[in-house]
């Protein structure tokens, strides 16, 4: 490509995980496309000195429910340039995409076809807005007749044709549905040449109904249909069966099955208190009791068994943080690392939009308003990987951490979303979704008590547009584009 580039990043440590490049280079881009990765001089309208900094592909988050302007801004400062809700998905996908486009986003976005939402639509004619993650229609999570299942599959097929990135399957919230239905979902994914993104059935360390059993079901569906099957948040759904799950996933992949996984670096998860796997009788099977369940907006643990039962009965949509593992405990930390450090595990946040006064913040706000709360993974997931796993523990090299945040998720998406083939890489002709960060400072700040943006991210470019410049968000920059599925016309 001849002529002057728009921007040249000069003198940085450039990491391209696909080619193995890890050296000082100049990276230049024009518009939204990388034009040079070179040791030579590049004429550019703007030159940025990246000496002492890392230049890497923008991070790709496969699992972000934080599909709001505030959520996207927090993730941009965490290095995310593409944030997709693929586990729960949205319904219908078209209006969700248009709502994001109308408000504008600093980072790229996209959605799977939400299986749970399709079921809820049939169960109760439930109408969904762009911010609805979990459905509430009575009966959506029960076993259904063959005719009803066929209706669900037809709705999913329509969404795949409309731009959905694969099929999101909240199986863990509906453990009573038939295995035949799940197998048919995988067959549908194969027909459209897209993947499924599954919250596996069950969450328990005891048989029957164990975490291992749930993961083996996903592996079996891939073996039976050939569909790419992605396991969401292995760290939380594996529980204390992480070693057995890790062996199963690794062996399946080694045998050529299209089975992939993701994890986030926290011992606590977040969900709604009415989730099936949080039933009082299942808590002992998780190795916890009600005191491990904290009310997100109240900022305290559940008081007692009576309050726990009352909230599940009367306010099942109450958002909670669940302490599955204690990161300070050596055994629990080893369990958590067992899924995070699997060879090709992607880093994915499971982020949620911050809540204020028990409602998600969807307005155009920055900074995050005082009193807003969410799981710290929503602001600091990727930065914690570099702070904790790379610098503190030395469990990952910096290039491998970059790979898990960029190329690995891009490869997971390769069949489902063709746009992903130009992301997760620093190569000529690829998208100018790039991050520039200080490897000594990039780290998480958010805690369970206080929401805060990550630090150390110096520049973030999305489609060649700076959304973070010199560590500061550019509030008017909204270059984010919709990532659409392979089935879109």
Automatic annotation (TrEMBL):
**What are the residue boundaries of the Amidohydrolase domain, all occurrences included?**
46-251, 363-468
> Which InterPro entries does the protein's record reference?
Amidohydro_3 (IPR013108), DHOase/Allantoinase_Hydrolase (IPR050138), Metal-dep_hydrolase_composite (IPR011059), Metal_Hydrolase (IPR032466)
Coiled-coil spans are none
This entry carries the following GO cellular component terms, namely: cytoplasm
Which GO MF terms does the UniProt record name? allantoinase activity
Q: Which domain of life is it from?
A: Bacteria
Name the UniProt key words of this record, in alphabetical order.
Answer: Hydrolase
Question: Which is a GO BP term held by this UniProt record?
Answer: purine nucleobase catabolic process
Q: Which Pfam families match?
A: Amidohydro_3
Q: Which Gene3D superfamilies match?
A: Metal-dependent hydrolases, Urease, subunit C, domain 1
The record's listing under NCBIfam families reads:
PRK09061.1 (NF006560)
Task: Tell me the protein's name.
Answer: Amidohydrolase family protein
Q: Which organism is this protein's natural source?
A: Kribbella sandramycini
């Amino acid at each position: 490509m001849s002529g002057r580039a728009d921007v040249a990043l000069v003198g940085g440590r450039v990491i391209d995980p696909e080619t193995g490049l890890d050296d000082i280079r100049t990276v230049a881009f024009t518009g939204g496309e990388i034009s040079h990765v070179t040791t030579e001089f590049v004429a550019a309208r703007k030159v940025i000195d990246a000496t002492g900094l890392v230049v890497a592909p923008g991070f790709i988050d496969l699992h972000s429910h934080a599909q709001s302007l505030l959520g996207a801004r927090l993730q941009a400062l965490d290095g995310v340039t593409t944030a997709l809700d693929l586990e729960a998905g949205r319904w219908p996908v078209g209006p969700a995409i248009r709502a994001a486009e109308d408000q504008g986003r600093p980072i790229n976005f996209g959605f799977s076809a939400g299986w749970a939402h399709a079921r809820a639509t049939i169960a109760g004619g439930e109408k969904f807005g762009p911010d609805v993650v979990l459905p509430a229609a009575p009966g959506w999570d029960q076993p259904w007749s063959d005719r009803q299942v066929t209706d669900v599959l037809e709705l999913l097929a329509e969404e795949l044709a409309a731009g959905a990135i694969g099929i999101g399957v909240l199986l863990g919230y509906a453990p009573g549905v038939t295995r035949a239905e799940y197998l048919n979902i995988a067959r549908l994914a194969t027909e459209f040449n897209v993947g499924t993104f599954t919250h596996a059935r069950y969450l328990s360390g005891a048989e029957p109904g164990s975490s291992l059993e749930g993961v083996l079901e996903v592996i079996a569906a891939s073996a039976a249909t050939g569909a790419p099957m992605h396991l969401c948040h292995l760290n939380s759904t594996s529980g204390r069966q992480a070693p057995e799950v890790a062996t199963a996933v690794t062996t399946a992949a080694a045998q050529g099955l299209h089975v992939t996984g993701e994890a986030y670096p926290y011992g606590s998860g977040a969900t709604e208190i009415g989730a099936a796997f949080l039933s009082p009788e299942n808590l002992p099977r998780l190795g916890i009791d009600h005191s491990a369940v904290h009310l997100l907006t109240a900022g305290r643990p559940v008081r007692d068994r009576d309050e726990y039962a009352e909230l599940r009965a009367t306010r099942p949509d109450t958002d909670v943080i669940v302490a599955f593992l204690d990161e300070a405990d050596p055994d629990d930390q080893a369990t958590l690392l067992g899924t995070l450090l699997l060879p090709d595990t992607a880093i994915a946040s499971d982020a949620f939009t911050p809540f204020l006064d028990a409602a998600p913040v969807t307005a155009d706000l920055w900074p995050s308003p005082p009193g807003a709360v969410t799981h710290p993974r929503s602001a600091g997931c990727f930065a914690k990987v570099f702070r904790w796993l790379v610098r503190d523990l030395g469990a990952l090299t910096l290039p491998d951490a970059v790979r898990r945040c960029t190329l690995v998720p891009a490869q997971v998406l390769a069949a489902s979303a063709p746009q992903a083939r130009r992301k997760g890489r620093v190569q000529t002709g690829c998208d100018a979704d790039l991050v520039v960060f200080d490897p000594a400072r990039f780290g998480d700040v958010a805690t369970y008590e206080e929401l805060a943006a990550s630090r150390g991210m110096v520049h973030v470019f999305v489609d060649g547009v700076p959304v973070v410049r010199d560590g500061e968000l550019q509030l008017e920059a909204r270059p984010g584009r919709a990532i659409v599925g392979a089935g879109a016309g």
